[in-house]
Amino acid sequence: MSATFTFPPLDARLDASHADIRDAVRDLCSHYPDEYWRKVDEARAFPDDFVGALTAAGWLAAMIPEEYGGSGLGLAEASVVLEEVNRCGGNSGAVHGQMYNMGTLLRHGSEAQKRALLPKIAAGELRLQSMGVTEPTTGTDTSRLKTTAVKQGDRYVVNGQKVWISRVRHSDYMILLARTTPREQCAKKTDGMSIFLVDLREAVGKGLTVRPIPNMVNHETNELFFDNLEIPAENLIGEEGRGFRYILDGLNAERTLIAAECIGDGYWFIDRATAYARDRVVFDRPIGQNQGVQFPLAEAYMEIEAANLMRWRACAQFDAGLPCGPAANMAKHLAAKASWEAANACLQTHGGFGFACEYDVERKFRETRLYQVAPISTNLILSYVAEHLLELPRSF
Ligand SMILES: Cc1cc2nc3c(=O)[nH]c(=O)nc-3n(C[C@H](O)[C@H](O)[C@H](O)COP(=O)(O)OP(=O)(O)OC[C@H]3O[C@@H](n4cnc5c(N)ncnc54)[C@H](O)[C@@H]3O)c2cc1C
């Protein structure tokens, strides 16, 4: 018996089980069309209206359990929200911090911290959009970070510097990673670091200086300078010295969510490129009739579909409470690579018009390029896979 397989339209090919979420987020995003994002980008502004609407609709509280006022959804559903924002031409970079930072508080915070913050975050009254890890002199080598938090009575006193810390100017709280025990005194180099809730409304100007970093992708990101910043001791999250481990849990969620954003970008590039390739006529035929134009798009599309499978695996493992480091890292890597390949193919398909701001391709091209570097660079994922999955000798 022979069966004929016909692909449904691109939209219907997306996971139907999340159709309600997709429809609702798309509906919201339809009020923030290309022109909105283009203007925000040109003005190097923050998409306040969009973030306000997403918050008011409850989407940023997706992963907050119902007992704290959220919707109690999983990482899979949260990832669909961010995927759709990017697929509709927007940029989830303005909001994604809230999804995974909240998880760190949920898993490791005290009941008092959760009761104080989570219902207000769920209601949109407070924002927990920032996480301060990276430092200018130590970069990816997190265990060598130099920012210290020293306990003095009922406070910790913080000194040091961070770089590339995002959304600080649009957040009320930040999760900060700092050293509480010198590295030389720790059994393991990743011991002796702790995480804290920093109330940015209290801290800025009183020990914390924020210096914006203008950048290629209009990402609200900053240098932070800590000069005897005092944090109440009760703002320590979990146990002192275990902060690196706590942060890692959140990073798996972050990587999976970023993978979903890249998948959204990837579909956006393929949609735009194929539409243009069908319409643009050169040498008396649509450019999409040329295999030289078709093949890079077909290749990129396959890469996106394949990366998407790994994204769903990471979501399923995370939501089942299983270890998901390998899947989360691989999903982020594959999806970032696929969206970049799609971006390149889309730009090339548009020829000169790909460079014109009004087509939005160059904006999305810049935006999706970020994910090869942040939140973790491609080389670091490759070395993680080599060392932890292939059991090759550690390279650094
Ligand atoms: C727009 C933006 C937003 C960001 N937001 C945040 C944020 O909110 N919070 C936060 O904490 N950080 C944030 N970051 C920082 C980001 O996570 C880091 O930039 C990223 O992890 C890379 O670190 P680095 O820039 O210090 O690069 P480095 O560590 O200096 O590395 C530079 C290059 O060398 C490579 N490299 C380094 N060591 C090795 C090695 N052993 N083997 C092979 N290659 C190696 C890296 O892969 C990279 O390509 C952001 C960055 C950007 C650009």
From TrEMBL:
This protein's GO CC annotations: cytoplasm
Record's keyword annotation contains Transcription: no
The protein's required cofactors: FAD
Biological-process GO terms, alphabetical: fatty acid beta-oxidation using acyl-CoA dehydrogenase
UniProt entry tagged with the keyword Oxidoreductase: yes
InterPro entries: Acyl-CoA_dehydrogenase, Acyl-CoA_DH_CS, Acyl-CoA_Oxase/DH_mid-dom, Acyl-CoA_Oxase/DH_mid-dom_sf, AcylCo_DH-like_C, AcylCo_DH/oxidase_C, AcylCoA_DH/ox_N, AcylCoA_DH/ox_N_sf
All copies of domain Acyl-CoA oxidase/dehydrogenase middle, residue ranges: 130-228
GO molecular function: acyl-CoA dehydrogenase activity; flavin adenine dinucleotide binding
One Pfam short name: Acyl-CoA_dh_1
Domain Acyl-CoA dehydrogenase/oxidase N-terminal: 17-125
Record key words, sorted: FAD, Flavoprotein, Oxidoreductase
Domain Acyl-CoA dehydrogenase/oxidase C-terminal as annotated: residue spans: 241-375
Family designation: Belongs to the acyl-CoA dehydrogenase family.
Listed name of the protein: Acyl-CoA dehydrogenase
Lineage, uppermost ranks: Bacteria, Pseudomonadati, Pseudomonadota, Betaproteobacteria, Rhodocyclales
